[in-house]
Amino acid sequence: GVVDADLGLANGDPRAAERTFQLLSQVTGRAGRTGKKSLGLLQTYQPDHPVMRAIVSGDSEAFYEREIAERERAALPPFGRLAGIIVTASACLSRAGGARTCKGLFEPCWRRGRSCAAPSGCRSTSTRRASYKRERQSQRSARFMKTLGLIGGMSWESTAIYYRLLNEIVRERLGGLHSAELLLWSFDFAEIAERQHAGDWDGAGVLLVKAARKLEAGGAEGLMICTNTMHKLADTVQAAISIPIIHIADATGHAVVAAGVKRPALLATRFTMEQDFYKGRLADKYGLQPVVPAQAGRDMVHRIIYDELCQGVVKADSKSAYVEEVGRLRRDEKIDGLIMGCTEITILIGQGDFDMPVFDTTRIHAEAAIDFALS
User: pLDDT of 319-332, one tens digit each?
Assistant: First the structure.
């Protein structure tokens, strides 16, 4: 057989000589193992290269002694450390120019006794594309998508939005026919809403824990409570299961901080606006100063959620009332953003209605859940 002996030497890897020597020694060493006379031919443009001479001579000890001495002289591992900088571009000349720019930027390091190796050779665009395509397909086929358990039906109007968003996000990230792996427990919202307004949070907690345990038993590896309000019971539910809850307030807090917003308005159910489980988390963990409407505004926002949005009713005057309330908070309370802290509010208003950052907790929660599922 004929072996291209120069291939392993055609890059800037300081271990290229050692690796090529080992590989070629193993390949040519197989000649004659079948008992028949055979010959291994090394095709090279560098017959005087130390690797080629070492293979021909068969003196591996001398080769390794020379390799160790060369590494020590050049302060290569294990006598020093290396840092690699990968420069990518659509054309080879562009990559070479970028590599030279990087070398110039790190010139102060070279003056302190460091050194810079020359850039390795460029692969053609077609080769890179083919390699990337194979790598991408391999990664996708090997990807393990976690199954998400959804506690929904609170109300089903927003749960339907969750289902669509989760699948759309997976398709956007993975392409083709990919979709999310989901298990859904959908409540009859009437029994939940009755307990909410009666203040029977313990009773509601029993129902959520039961649902969470069934989802975990069914194979869910992460849990979503598909409502802001019922995250009041997130700690109770988490204590009853071993899989993690993707917390909507944490996902929202990260998004608000990332946008540079400090004092967002919070429109939500009365429970979320008035109790501390949500506002307190945003303040304590993320340093935010959430602002809620005055009593009349809270009553209006809450009524529209339960009497209209949770029942699939969308009215123009209700939208106007929400927009006016946000305008008042901006004027009087100096808010710099808006958290739509009820998963149904996205049915009524959105970013297009305001000239400041708006945080759709339904989408933010869905994005965070898919981050978890694909991690």
Answer: 999 999 999 999 99
